[in-house]
Each structure stands twice: as structure tokens, then as C-alpha cells.
Amino acid sequence: MSEQCKARASTRSAVGAADRWYSCAAPNHGTPPDSHVTDNLIEIEGLRFSRGDRIIFDGLDLVVPRGSITALMGPSGTGKTTLLRIIGGQIRPDSGRVIVDGRDVPSLSRGELFELRKGMGMLFQSSALFTDLSVFENVAFPLRVHTDLPDEMIRDLVLMKLNAVGLRGARDLMPSQLSGGMSRRVALARTIALDPKFIMYDEPFTGQDPIAMGVLVSLIRGLNESLAMTSLVVSHDIHETASIADQLYIISDGRVIGEGSPDVLRDHPSTMVRQFMLGSPDGPVPFHYPADNFLDDVLGDA
Amino acid sequence: MLRYLRLLGQWALDWIAALGRATLVWFWSMAGVPQRDDLKLLVKQIYQIGVLSLIIIILSAFSIGAVLALQGYTQLARVGAEESVGLGVALVLLRELGPVVTGLLFAGRAGSAITAEIGLMKATDQLSSMEMMGVDPLHRIAAPRLWAGMISMPILTVIFNAVAIGGAALVGVDWLGVDQGGFWGGMQDGVEMWDDVGKGMVKAVLFAMVISWIAVFQGYDSTPTAEGISVATTKTVVYSSVAVLAFDFMLTLVMYGEFK
């Protein structure tokens, strides 16, 4: 620890000291000096990926500016969650560049990938809390694994993170005792435990009641601003997402079919983009799964 | 005919691919420098895998030892050699039944539990979330279970042998009236440290490695659905049991010279 850090750690305020201790002891997620730093945290160019014969991405291009909230939308099955996993290095694309914080993710070694991930977070649709650990221990997990902080300091940090999501009082509960909305908020507290530069949210509003949804919307916006983070949100909830997103991408058939602010997309020339933004049940994305003629099917032999 | 050949080829390719993935799981689990809380994770798994298997091991061992003594006594009494029942039981247990039955019980009790736990962690994205936090699940989840299995099963085999011999002594000496000196003396004279105890433990260690590896891999490679976990758990028990019996035959062939 540097002299400056030691001096800082001697301050009396418990919470303040926790912040300073943490900033001294936490692993360095900084961009390596030789990396290519731009205004965009994520740059994806010509991404191609297929599963078997099915093409998921066919030359997809996308950028996520630093400090922004970018939303990724599109019909079900277009590979939005797959894209998050490609950005996180959990899936390797067939071709194309995936630059995250100046590093080409597909070309990173296993060790480099784990190092890069310490600076990013992901909120899973299922929350993915560790079921054998309490709420407190779930949030403490990344701190215990990645830092050498003393237990008292970890306690302070965990309580701060839980307080930020309004669940400091639920610290002793087990994940099985939480509602869906509470689980999502605990998972969010765990995701921000290491103060990541970048968070990916996979369907954060799915299955939430209006109150929980409102809480999550304000948390995502608030955390993005107060922690100076960059957020990438995958969601089907147009109104909630549009209310916090700086820019939206609509993906379909393996490509970006519309991008821009929510207002721009509502008046987009593409009927498919408009159908999605207005939530029309039928249109270029058909209501029916491809099938034979209905009458022929019904009146035909069993 | 061509269709069957294609299916056979596909099956062979899938099998080779699975073996490759299993090797990677083993390699990445074993690779790397131990971290500070690895010992805590290991102790927890030894409790889950080893200590919680004790009851089934002790009950089975006592029952098998008692039955062996009863059967052995009935046959040996015909030729007036009932005092050899102690030696016979000890050799059968130390060389074969101890490691094999412990292995089968271990696969059913602990192997299935390991697979189901890891499979469920995969299905609920717990492994993915760990990866995204920069924590390697192979190091954090797979490695402690592999090591705990490899440490616990040989110890369970020793306990199995001891309890089974105790059960045999209870039936043979205390119930059927075999001379105590003959029972224990015959065992002391006839049992060789390396040939009987040592080689039996070599089997136990190998079975432990194979069962733990199969259990961890099946969980890690399972399809993340309820059916997928069920299939993976079944595979663990079936593959482990077949592997134990097959390896037992091969090891017996290799280690005991008289079969060469």
C-alpha cells in the first residue's frame, strides 16, 4: 500500500475510511498502458456467431459510449443475452472484433479474461445469488475473493452497498427468503461491490411488480450517475428502458436494425423498429410461428 | 447400414469431445496456486462428501462383515477350518470388497450429490455469475470437491474395512464361538501389509479419483434443465459404478502376480 493510502486509512470516519481503504486495497481494474482507449467502452464490429445452422449474429456493429446507459432490445430469440455473454467472454464469436475497455475480448487468454471481468459486472435475469450464502455473504463474496480487506472493513462496505439498494435490514436473510425484486436488488448490490466500470443488466425488470420495477429503474439510473459507470441493459420493457436509456439498439435477424434515442426510434422509417417500439402484436415480426395454411391444417387428416 | 455407421461415428465423436472437456475440467481444476480460503472450502467439502457418508458406510460395512463371517463359517466348518474365517474375511475385504463396495456406495451417496449440486448451480446461473465476477468456478467449485473426494474415499475405505472386520468378529467369535486367538492370530499371520492392505488402498485412491472426476464433470457439463440434471446424476452413478468394477478387474490383473 502506498504512503498516501496509509495516510488516508488513518482517518476517523468509519464509512469514509472504508471507502479510502477500499480504493487503496482493491485490485487495479485500470486499462493497461498499451491499450487502445477511446470514448467508447465497448466497440463491436462485424460480429458473426452461429449455433449449428442457425445464424445468431451476421455482421453486427455496436458501440457503447463511456458513462452512458445503452439499451439493447429486440424480439425474443435474437441473441441479446448471447451478446452479453460474448462481451463478457463467456462465449467466443465466430469472427469480428469485440473491444471492451480497449481489449479485444476473443483474443484474451483465460487469465486475462478473469482479470478483465473484475472490472465489469453482470446482473442475471435469475439473480444468480449463491443459495448457500446469506444476503450479507453474497455481497461480501467478491470482496473476500478479490481483496485483502479486514473483516470490519468488508462489513462496512457490504452494509453500504446493501443500503444503496435499500436492503441493509435484510442482511441476515437467505436467498430463499427473498422476493424476486429483493433478490434482484441483492444481486445488484453484489454486482457493485467492487465498484465496476461497467455493468450488463440481463432483463432486470422481468417478473417485477410495478413498485419493484420503479425501484430498479431508479437504482440503475442512480448508480450509473453516482458511480460514473457505463451500463448496457437488455430488456423488453420499452417504457422503463426508454425512460433511463441514453441510446437504444434494436436487433433483429442478427443485425442492428435501428439505433438512436427513444424518440428517434419511435418515428423510425423501418416498420419493424416501429412495431417493436409501439408493441404492435402483428407486423414484420409475425404473430404466428411459420406454419401451413390454417384451413388446410384444420380440415386435413390428423 | 450407412445410417448406423453415421450414428456410430457421431457417438464416437461426441464421446471423444466429452473426454476432451473432462480433461480440461480436470486440468483447470488442478492448475493454479492454492488461495487463502481454499483450505476452508476443502474442509467444508470433506464434511459434505466424507463425514456425511459415514452412516451408510458403517451400516453397510457391518452388515457385509457379518454376512461374510456367517457364510465363511458355514463352509469352513465342514472341513474343520472355522478358525480361518478371520483370515478369509480380512483378505476378501482388504483386497476387493473394501475398496469396491466403498466406491459403489460413495458414487451413489456423494457422487450423485456433487453432480446435482454443480448442475443446479449451473442451471441457476451461479457458475456464470462467478465467472463474471472474475472468479474461476473450476477453482472455486470443482477443485475442492475433487480434492475432498480423493481424500475422503480412501479414509472411508479404511473405516469400511475396520467396521466390517469388527462385524465379522462379532458374529464369528462372539456368536458362532470361533476361537478368538485363531480368528485374530490367523489374520495377523496371513495378512501382508503391502500385498493386501497397500494394494487395496491403491485401488481406493484410484477409484476416488475416477468417481470424483466423473461426478464433477457430469455436473459441470450437464444440460441446465431439470431433466438435464436428472440425466447427469444418473450418468454419474452408472459411469462411476461401471468404472469401479472395470478398474478393479484391471488393477487386480496388474497388481496380483499370480494372474499374469
Count the strands of chain A? 10
Approximately how much beta-strand content do the residues of chain B carry? under 5%
The share of residues in helices of chain B is over 70%
Q: Give the terminus-to-terminus CA distance of chain B.
A: 41 Å
What is the chain-wise order of helices and strands of chain B?
HHHHHHHHH
CATH fold label of chain A: Rossmann fold
Helical region count of chain B?
9
Q: Please state the structural category of chain A.
A: alpha/beta
The run of helices and strands of chain A is HHEEEHEEHEHHHEHEHEEHHH
Overall, the morphology of chain B is elongated
Runs of chain A in which pLDDT lies below 50 for 5 or more consecutive residues are 1-35
Oligomer: heterodimer
Largest sheet of chain B: none
Please tell me the CATH architecture of chain A by its name.
Answer: 3-Layer(aba) Sandwich
Structure notes:
The complex is a heterodimer of chains A (302) and B (260). With 302 residues, chain A is an alpha/beta fold. Chain A has one domain (32-278): Rossmann fold, CATH 3.40.50.300. Chain A is 38% helix and 21% strand. The termini of chain A are far apart. Chain B has helices spanning 2-30, 38-50, 54-78, 85-123, 126-132, 137-175, 180-190, 193-220, 226-255. Helix content of chain B is 85%, strand content 0%. Chain B is elongated, with a radius of gyration of 22 Å. Chain B starts with a helix and ends in a 5-residue tail after the last helix. Chain B has one domain. The interface between A and B is medium-sized, with 27 and 14 residues.
Question: Can I get a quick summary?
Answer:
The complex is a heterodimer of chains A (302) and B (260). Chain A has 302 residues and is an alpha/beta fold. Chain A is 38% helix and 21% strand.
Can you lay out the helices and strands and say which pair or pack?
The complex is a heterodimer of chains A (302) and B (260).
Chain A (H helix, E strand, L loop, with lengths): L2 H7 L4 H12 L14 E12 L2 E12 L3 E5 L6 H8 L7 E6 L2 E2 L5 H8 L2 E4 L11 H12 L4 H14 L15 H12 L6 E5 L7 H17 L3 E5 L3 H7 L2 E6 L2 E6 L1 H5 L4 H8 L15 H6 L3
Parallel strand pairs in A: 3-8, 3-9, 6-7, 7-8
Antiparallel strand pairs in A: 1-2, 1-4, 4-5, 9-10
Helix pairs in contact in A: 1-2, 2-6, 5-6, 5-7, 6-7, 8-9
Chain B lengths: L1 H29 L7 H13 L3 H25 L6 H39 L2 H7 L4 H39 L4 H11 L2 H28 L5 H30 L5
